[in-house]
Amino acid sequence: MIKHIVFYFLFNFSFLVSQAIAPEVTDEKKRLLVLTADESKPDDALDRKISKIVAETASSLGRYEVIDRNQLESIINEQALQQTGIIAESDIIKLGGIASAKEAMKVQITLYSQKGVPPEDDDDDDDDDRGFWEMVVYESVKGAIRLATTPKEEEPYANNMETIIHADIIFLDIESGKTLNTFPISAMHTGGSRGESLSKALTIVRWNVSRSLRELYTITSEVLDVDGSNVTLYLGSEMGVKKGIVYEISRLDKKKKLRDREVIIPGKSVGLVRIDRVSEDASTGKIVRKWGRVKEGYKAVEMIHPPTVASGLYISYNLERSGLDRGGVSFQLKPFSRWSFNGFLGGGNIIDSRNRRDGMLMFGGGFIYRFLYTPKFNLCATADIPFNLVFRSDDEGHNVSTMLISSQLGLQTEIMLNRKLDIVFQAGVSSPGVHGNWQYTKGDGDDSKSFDAEWNNFEPTLDASGMYVNISIRFLNID
Q1: What does the pLDDT look like over 199-236, one tens digit per residue?
Q2: Using CA atoms, how far apart are residues 40 and 85, in angstroms rounded to an integer?
Q3: Residue 433 has what DSSP assignment?
Q4: d(C-alpha 348, C-alpha 357), whole Å
């Protein structure tokens, strides 16, 4: 019995004893050899354009030391690469050794398409009232006329080109020649001439390339100092750290020994830091959100996809005579910034001057300024403009509606409940607002006409003025 107790104690004690692992800081640039496309192709060939985008994007990120074909030609005095128009797979090891790079990158186009497409609204209004067979005949004749009147050197819909690009960015281990990773890149744009459409699609490609390159070599830093909500981190502009980058702060990983086996337990996440200032070797920022204690020596890992939009559900009530009740969904752009844009969509009701509760659909937006920003709660000033479509029936039984536009000024507090969830309270003052005539519609489509509402007595008016309170739940997409 005693032996079993001693064994149990020793077994669990060996598991409990752990050793913290210092973060592996990415303080060295990754040398990357960019293998360009066949040199026999013109400079405007798509794969050469994308290779150039990759090289430029990798250089701009700061964490890569990019060796492209032109640099490599200088290194080897124009000997190896000028003998052939394309770099063969067998040459990768040799070239990598010359460039002192361990990894190489090449672009492979899997799909490229450009064609003119009809605009989405092209004759749609005329088509709605036609039958199926009439539509077939109409489209056939319309297409024949368009082809007959289009010069041969042009193509139909030449000013509404659809560009589709699918490519793979392939990363290779230079020593083994094996593929380390493949990042698919896709882009599509419709609109403009052939050149305009391609340019817009390549802009999308550039954004996707930047994201993929950051995923390939994510910056890992270390907390050097903590002063309240101010944090100093190792690494700065030399490694491509820029203002606005968000880091996730975690406790150190721990190494535990279980019998003859070592187990690495990842450190728990404790908060988020947004960088405000950058020097060459260090950066400082604010703790914008925390659910644990941030300490010196903790690990900081760059967030590739920091939350840029927060969504939520809200309910609101006007405390005075308008009796305004509403609720719906809302969203915020840049929830970690001092300034945010707030949008909302919902419905409710409002009491008019006839003391009748009218239905209402609402949408609108405004701005939020966080004048007190802390890791767990914020105090904000808000300014919103709701657009309210109010509807009821007139005295002759017609379904009538009007648009009520008002403005709101308020104060708001955002309180963090957990890593991904906030509760938001808002109180403020609403203006009376202005609205147009009550109207109803008769007829369908192009034959529809609007008429003023018919009232036996006085026309009801709307007043949205008064104090209001708002409560909402806000969700943040934090991986």
Answers
A1: 999 999 999 999 888 988 899 999 999 999 999 999 99
A2: 6
A3: -
A4: 10
**Residue whose pair of structure tokens reads 């919902």 in the numeric block:** 346
Please name the helix (run of DSSP H) or strand (run of DSSP E) that holds residue 277, with its range, or none.
strand 269-278
SS3 state of residue 287: strand
Structure tokens at 277: 């200032």
To the nearest 10°, report the CA torsion of 290, 296, 297, 300: 30
- DSSP label at residue 158: T
Q: How big is the chain by its Cα radius of gyration, in Å? A: 31
CA proximity to 336, closest of 301, 294, 370: 370
| pLDDT, tens only, 348-364 | 999 999 989 999 999 99
d(C-alpha 338, C-alpha 370), whole Å? 5
Beta-ladder partners of 390:
360, 402
In which element (H, E) is residue 466 found? strand 466-476
- Both tokens of 47, joined, read 């794969």
Question: Residue 282 is which amino acid?
Answer: A
- Tell me 340's DSSP state: E
Q: What is the dihedral of CA 385, 391, 395, 399, to 10 degrees?
A: 140
* pLDDT for the residue 321: 61
Distance separating alpha carbons of residues 274 and 302, to the nearest angstrom: 10
CA separation for the pair 37, 220 (Å, rounded): 33
Return the pLDDT at 126: 47
Residue 124 has pLDDT above 80, yes or no: no
What's the gap between Cα 370 and its chain centre? 21
Q: DSSP code of 127?
A: H
| pLDDT reported for residue 6 | 45
Q: How confident is the model at residue 445 (pLDDT cuts 50, 70, 90)?
A: confident
Q: What is the DSSP letter of 243?
A: T
